[in-house]
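Worked example 4.2. Below are the chains of a multi-component assembly; read each line carefully before continuing.
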Amino acid sequence: MSEFKIAQREQESVHVLELKGYLDAHTAPTLEEAFQSLLKNQRFNIVVNCKDLSYISSAGLGVFMAYIEDVRKNKGDIKLSNMSPKVYNVFDLLGFPLLYEITRDEQEAVKKFSPAK
Amino acid sequence: MASPSSSYESHFEHSALFEFSTVINSSLDLRFILGHILLTLMGKLLSSRGAAVLRHSDGSYHVEMVKGLPADVVGRSLVMRSVPRGLQYTERVNVGRQPWAKFFDDLGLEILLPLRSGSGPIGVLAFGKRVTKTHLAARETTYLKSLANISATAIDKCHTIEELKLVNRRLDRKIQELNTLFDLGREFGAVLDPDKLVRLLVFSLMGQIGVHRYLICLRDGIDMRIAASRVDGAVPQAELLTLLTKVKNPVTVQEMIVTTAKDPRPALESLGLHAIVPMELQGQTRGVILLGEKLNRERFSAADFEFLSALGSLAIISLENARLFKEAIEKQRMEDELLIARDIQKGLLPSELPSLPGIDIAAANFSSKQVGGDYYDVIPMDDHRYIIAIGDVSGKGTPAALLMANIQATIRALVPLKLPLGELTARVNDLMCQNTGGDKFVTFFWGALDYQTLTLHYVNAGHNHPYVLRADGSVERLDKGGMILGVMATMIPYEEGEVMLCEGDILVLFTDGVSEAMNSASQEYGEERLEAMIRKAGGWGAQALIEVIHEDIQRHAAGAPQSDDITMMVVRIVTRA
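Applying the procedure described above to all two chains together yields the following structure tokens:
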């Protein structure tokens, strides 16, 4: 069935999650675990690179909603980058650009963390 | 007849109209179109200011764009009950009847050019005084009307396209909602862990509706239990949750109609919760979804509630399935346990009774569905005596069966000591008290039957008094003994009873499953009926007597399931050995 993977790396004190595949109700718990462990390890500057994300469902978006408050409470943020038009359309349709910073490429998102810190 | 110069002018006007039409129809950008319209008309009129006022779908008019006027005029709205049919001068409009004329007058907009499409007025173009300060000639008026018509068509087209885009987006959202339901439906079908189900529900709610605050309550019997929550402040109390089960339809907290004595709204508002969606199953509210403000701060719409209700139904069905599944497993586990109990019990009861010379002895245990803790035994004591025993352990199932096994082991170990029965009983009782902690007990009767002398020494520890039916028809009950076993350490010694048996006498031991066998009207079989049966069938063999009594009990019960084991032992003195 649906395949979903997360690759993680650290870049200039920003934690980058690369999502790959289908993010739906079935795979949402995988992303949830990733966020949980980031929070546990005090990583609050997070960029989610969606270059290889081929699909996102509401349950997938819900995971972002579930963690954004905790991350921002710790003066961090979750920024998103490299979305395909199809994935962006879902974010846009549900009004997420209001709440999340979405950039064209990952570097742009990473840079947004540095001046303030 | 047109003069040559007017023919030239006419040609010029036609090509200008054509060009104008080409330009404004080449774009779908309303701002570009309006800008071009205003500038073209201002040029034609030789006017230094212009405004485009458009009608919105709710019937109100709004300034969309201005030229040569302060920018803050844009966005101002006005009420126009009627719009001039053709070109009109502001000064000629009756301000008393058309108050909107004052708005144009104040801005120095003197010439009004209505925009109409097939469906009616769509706006007004307004322009300032002409630099030439002359009124428009008839020909110019006609030309302006043509421009206005072309403009109206272009604006109308723009509106239609905007509307289509909106419809498209709404459709996209609907598709997204359906995808969410489909996604969850598929996943819910595969998940049987209620906690995981609730978490997926929460994710979908947060993602689809865009909320941060939520409270999911599920019904647990009569009470509502919080399954998941993220609210402002402390988690609400049970009392508040119970009030929410009264909500029958999705509703915003604001619009909630309070039918209960206590108003739950202030509490909900302080928790940051804005909407309530009951989760119904077979017309019963089995849970409630409460949601906080939406990300875009919009009100919860009918479409939102429609989606939430569908999501709620889906979730509650899956949760119910998970609950039933768990229950089925639990039931299976209990049935397995009962099978074990039944096996233990059957293993303990003697499969075959020893044959005693001159004595006809039979026993039977009919275990109930739950497996009671009934027990009987016949144990050789020495070369002329046998122990006959019957007992009923409190409780049912495996614990009762295990205790029964314990007692059997104890008495089998103690019998060879050949101590007086009263003393043995005291020891069994003390051992049991030490081992069970006093929360379990046994009614117990045992006797040492000497088949040579036909004497029976017995102790009755709180058990149903066995019957002795004499050959002459008289009845004795064996009631000597003491406390039931397992309640407290022996303080008062157990009294030993003694009966002399004769040829033709019958001894009937039984458990309360016999005397208390119920029919569907909750009437007990009773000792009187038992005694009558013993008398009636007294002449029969031991096994036959048991069968007759059992059949009579079944007749009484008439199919009602029995909650307790039915156990009997019959000893008949056939001949002196």
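Take a moment to check your reading of the output against the notes. Chain B touches chain A through 28 residues (CB under 8 Å). The radius of gyration of chain B is 49 Å.
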